[in-house]
Amino acid sequence: MYEGAVQNLIDELGRLPGVGPKSAQRIAFHLLSAETADVKRLVGALVEVKERVRFCSVCGNVAEESECRICRDPRRDTSVICVVEESKDVVAIERTREFRGRYHVLGGAISPIEGVGPDDLRIKELMTRLADGQVTELILATDPNLEGEATATYLARLLKPLGLRVTRLASGLPVGGDLEYADEVTLGRAFEGRRSLDF
Amino acid sequence: MSLYRDEGIVLRTQKLGEADRIVTLLTRRTGLVRAVGKGVRRTKSRFGARLEPFSHVDLQLHTGRTLDIVTQADTLHAYGGPLVADYPRYTAGTAMLETAEKIVIVEKDPALRQFLLLLGGLRTLAGGGHDPRLVLDAYMLRSLAVAGYAPALEECARCGSQGTHRNFAVHAGGMVCTVCRPAGSATPAPAVVALMLALLRGDWEHADASTERDRGQCSGLVAAYLQWHLENGIRSLRLVERA
Ligand SMILES: [Zn+2]
Ligand SMILES: [Zn+2]
């Protein structure tokens, strides 16, 4: 244990995802020896993200205005929606430059064991977006792991009565992984080879 | 024992750090084991798919200070595939995995009968021959029985008097006679009690012939009984769907 302020910092850092006690200690001492200006810039970035960034009222992606950059872009195809779990998946897919439609960010995947059910995700919002009949294809790009697959199964069943084309990314993505770790080439290929789901 | 080999069913996975996962397994010889799968969330990992819930795997593990480390995993059965394609089956299966973890509780204390029960239950569920909720209820009843908490169905849970009684009291331990009956006991239809007995014994012919209404009542009683015996409730039960 360290004295007051240092220990406080270690405790706060340790609450971040993926940061264990050892890493928290390493980061804390790095900050302690860093230039004051550098630390102030970090503090500024933290405060700014909380004050300025919110979630897009249409798709749920991170946004600096009420709608995100992609939803505001008139060049994006409004007939296709790609459904993803998190905002970071939008970034991964944008990198491939394969997709010109819009997104819908669910805010996670169905995980009964964690108590996360369909009502805890932005599924109602998705159904509302589909109501006006503009969208003709929905690409389910949830993670290629068990929870992502279960979420896709649930959505496909829910969407069936709407008569849209519902597709799933090609199985070139190895199962068990997180979408954000797929490289651009593999992810791009998965888009080209997406298959229709018939439930 | 720094390196050991076992066979297990993956119950649960949790993200750890950048790309690792903590995997909770029910193994044949060692009982409940929590181990780290390194790098399994990278999509290039051939390991990842094998360490997903519902996978029955042959494992090599390294004993660690706090958590063991999975050094090798080979698939014996991948029940996740068929289950995930059918939402009611998937949710029933998830409740089975959660029940197994919460009923065994203690780590590294061999629980062979619980392992075999879960393996059989998943095989039946993935086989698709029965209503998934019936498979789940049968699994929960038998798993409670193995743990020593079988509900009394053919005698009074309090005084032991034989016969088919009319009332069911969760906290008394099952059916109760009119003399022992505590306030607030349930009064299930005789067919519901018969269904519970059939599920406990594995009489599928009887269970499959039951009515939707009796299955619903039976599920309610089994869930209440299970939650009473486990300290923490089964979270995923809320999301189990009827086929
Ligand atoms: Zn948006
Ligand atoms: Zn009695």
Describe what you observe in this structure.
The complex is a heterodimer of chains A (199) and B (243). Chain A has eight helices and seven strands; from the N terminus they run H-H-H-E-E-H-E-H-E-H-E-H-E-H-E. With 199 residues, chain A is of the alpha/beta class. In chain A, helix 1 (4-14) packs across helix 2 and helix 5 packs across helix 8. The mean pLDDT of chain A is 88. Chain B folds into two domains: 3-78, OB fold (Dihydrolipoamide Acetyltransferase, E2P) (Beta Barrel); 81-239, Recombination protein O, C-terminal domain (de novo design (two linked rop proteins), Up-down Bundle). In chain B, 37% of the residues lie in helices and 22% in strands. Chain B is built from seven helices and seven strands. The longest helix of chain B has 18 residues, at 87-104. Classes of the chains: A alpha/beta (199), B alpha+beta (243). Chain A binds chain B through residues 17-18, 20, 110, 112-115, 117, 144-146, 149-150, 153-154, 157, 173-179, 181-183, 186, and chain B through 12, 15-19, 40-54, 80, 84-87, 90-91, 94-95, 97-98, 235-236, 238-240. Bound molecules: zinc ion (2 copies). One zinc ion binds at residues 156, 158-159, 161, 176-177, 179-180 of chain B. Chain B: Involved in DNA repair and RecF pathway recombination. Chain B: Residues 1-79 form the DNA replication/recombination mediator RecO N-terminal domain. Chain B: This is DNA repair protein RecO.
What is the element layout, followed by pairings?
The complex is a heterodimer of chains A (about 200) and B (about 240).
Chain A: H1 4-14, H2 21-33, H3 36-52, E1 54-55, E2 62-63, H4 69-72, E3 80-84, H5 87-96, E4 102-105, H6 123-130, E5 137-140, H7 146-159, E6 165-168, H8 184-192, E7 195-196
Parallel strand pairs in A: 3-4, 3-5, 5-6
Antiparallel strand pairs in A: 1-2, 6-7
Helix pairs in contact in A: 1-2, 5-8
Chain B: E1 3-16, E2 20-27, E3 31-37, E4 55-62, E5 68-78, H1 80-84, H2 87-104, H3 112-127, H4 132-146, E6 167-169, E7 174-176, H5 190-201, H6 204-208, H7 212-229
One zinc ion binds near residues 158, 176 and 177 of chain B.
